[in-house]
What we know:
Oligomer: single chain
Amino acid sequence: MITDTARLVVGFREAAQPDRALLGGKGAGLVEMTALGIPVPPGFILTTACGSAFAATDGLPESARAAVAAHLAEVEIVLGRRFGALDDPLLVSVRSGAPVSMPGMMDTILNVGLTPASAARLAVASGDARFAYSSFEHLLDGFATSVRNLPPDVVDDAVEGLDRDTAEGARQRCAALLTAIEEESGAPFPDPAGQLEEAIAAVFSSWDGRRARAYRKHKGIDDSIGTAVVIQAMVYGNRGDTSGSGVVFTRDPASGAPGACGEYLARAQGEDVVSGEFESAGLDSLAAALPNTYAELTAILDRLERHARDMCDVEFTVEDERVWILQTRVGQRSSRAAVRIAVDLARDGVIEPAEAVRRIDARDLARLPRTADPEPPEGALVARGTPSSCGAATGAAVFDADTAADYAEQGCAVVLIRPTTSPADMAGLIAAAAVVTGRGGPMSHAAVVARGMDRPAVCGVGPVVIAADGRSATVDGRPVVLGDPVTVDGDNGWIARGELPLADAADDPDYHQYLRWRETLHGTSEEKA
């Protein structure tokens, strides 16, 4: 039970109710899953009330510091590991968790608690130096960009040419990142307690970061709700070939079609799956490699969807064939998927038709995407990729976020074409009518953000090489010039030259079923509305 004096820090097992306003969406989901007996690594939440106190004083209140130490000690007891130990240390993740979903907009730091000394000991004790140093690299990379605010190009330059896929290469990358952090920030890399303190401050502060503010403005999210911070024991998807990380929706978030839809990457951790930097595979790769693990995952997904009575967005890690769920939330979806999911759930008796009608926002109907012909005209095709967010759109080709925003301010529809996207591209994603990326798939950053904004997206079209002056690019070997009109079809997965004709999506049968239910309930037809 949460008392007034204990509202700042709450353990996963302490909350009587999953209060999203206090615990944030991620924290509330973890509390709910823990109560359901879903396999969740233990942890605790610094609440939105704690975030407000942090913002008011530019630091954690002493009572919150004491509560963090007490909750960390409880996790140590549960797992039999000590935070800050040299041998077999407890490591934690520090993640944001606002009351409303803001995917990729705030910061995450993984493997907090590792040091150069404990990483070296872990390399020996585990017998897998690549695992130890890749874990340390994840911490250093997040610490550099999210905590010490080093520019991404400084981080990239520090590790350029160093092989991440070998133990020695990973060790060298860690050494280079450690040097960059200390030289660029002018402060030493801290001990585990200092890492945790700086990471908590960075995640709370990311609520007021530029990309988070831009996203909230675009989505109409109240700035005053704040964010919580989730501290959770690490599990290791990078431990070996029987480990990995994945992101899965219980239904297709682009079309709304039933059946799990996701990506899995063996020997991976954290953002590796969604970054677009690595070649992820579908869930069938997990089913083939680890069939018992896949069966456990699908059973959990079914439980989560039945409990939520809605499509769920789930992050998971497999460690030595065991499934751990790191997050669940009602998943963001395209407007087309919103209509189909609500109608399907009502047809299946999960919800009533009246609730299906209430779930479909008028804005969903207004944003139902347009469609193109399944194939572009002969000679117009530029590249094919993975359909990642439904609908079709036309616009002028642009190759960076700033140019996209500039063109959009002048009233020009644009298509943002990038090798991959990151939260740093947020202004361009908001400005774009459609998005194309060379790498990544349906769970990549570009795809997730595009679906949430009802932008068509095609990912994984092949190499996107942008000229140094930013005025041209090659897309899978074919030239595209800044300002060229192009059409993107997120349903069929292609980009083509020219402004091709588009059609409205009014013939969707689920849309017509919704209209019939709405007329029955309210006596309002589409023509009368």
